[in-house]
């Protein structure tokens, strides 16, 4: 019998070289120089990014269109609501207000829609009747920094603490750290307004550590000075801490559950078997893959940041976009409502687009599937 001679290393290399470029890589080849060279030729996923950009442009058009038609489907208008609160307005002044706001026009709905887009592209969002005919962009511009500064900071801090804490709890499963999950989950189930009222009663009324509400002290005017910044930090500490406590449980629980799933994957077991440092396995392998769903959830929470928490701003009497939207809805100030909705829509779409880009670079399977 003729013995079958094993292939030499050179023959094996030539055989692998003859494989078609689209064939799957054998498991033995993982970690070889050729595989690393192939992986090194990473390209920017232009096709993936282009597809997502087209999707979000269509979503933006649909959101703006709904933003145009929705207020016009509501009963009444801003002038009628204004006249109900101010009885001493003359009929001539009421007609002038309707003319200024474009409510007396005989244009068709389609022509109004075209005019709305023309004004929108010029950055003209109209004027706010609720704020003395001031431009909507100016009114939103004064409230937006307060919401981003407070709710945005609190959301980012809660996301960072919850994600890192959830990764550590999941990595050390079965330890005493598991007790953090039910505690934070219980705190997140408490209604936010109730948690805020408890915080005010304890830390503001009884202990007197923090002011009850407002963004800064009475008698101060916004300016860039150490005294004013200190006032803003002092007034914002309690509502920011309340937001962090209320939202921490969701981030930690989600990251912990994803860590438990990832830790059973083969690549994590192989990394541990090869004797890699535990910190590298934790953050370079397990946490890096477990954090991917968290990124999408964080992008969705951007709408919560810009829209503001109406309840929080009402409980703490804090100026922001959420309270601005509530006041505009009650007054049927359509121009201001449309402006706030537009800012929220743009922020959510932009955040989700950035999240998709980050997701594509962190997880190559996403752009390979799209390609």
How do the helices and strands line up, and which of them pair or pack?
Blueprint lengths: L8 H9 L15 H8 L5 H27 L5 H8 L5 H11 L7 H13 L5 E2 L5 E2 H36 L8 H10 L2 H15 L19 H37 L3 H8 L4 H13 L1 H9 L1 H6 L2 H6 L5 H11 L2 H29 L1 H7 L1
Antiparallel strand pairs: 1-2
Task: Describe the protein.
- By secondary structure, this protein is mainly α.
- The protein folds into 2 domains: 47-134, no CATH class; 141-370, Orthogonal Bundle (MetI-like fold).
- Helix content is 71%, strand content 1%.
- The chain has 18 helices and 2 strands.
- The protein has helices at residues 9-17, 33-40, 46-72, 78-85, 91-101, 109-121, 136-171, 180-189, 192-206, 226-262, 266-273, 278-290, 292-300, 302-307, 310-315, 321-331, 334-362, 364-370, and strands at residues 127-128, 134-135.
- The protein has a two-stranded antiparallel ribbon with strand order 1-2.
- Strand 1 and strand 2 form a beta hairpin.
- The chain is globular.
- The two termini are 51 Å apart.
- Mean pLDDT is 75; it is low at 1-42.
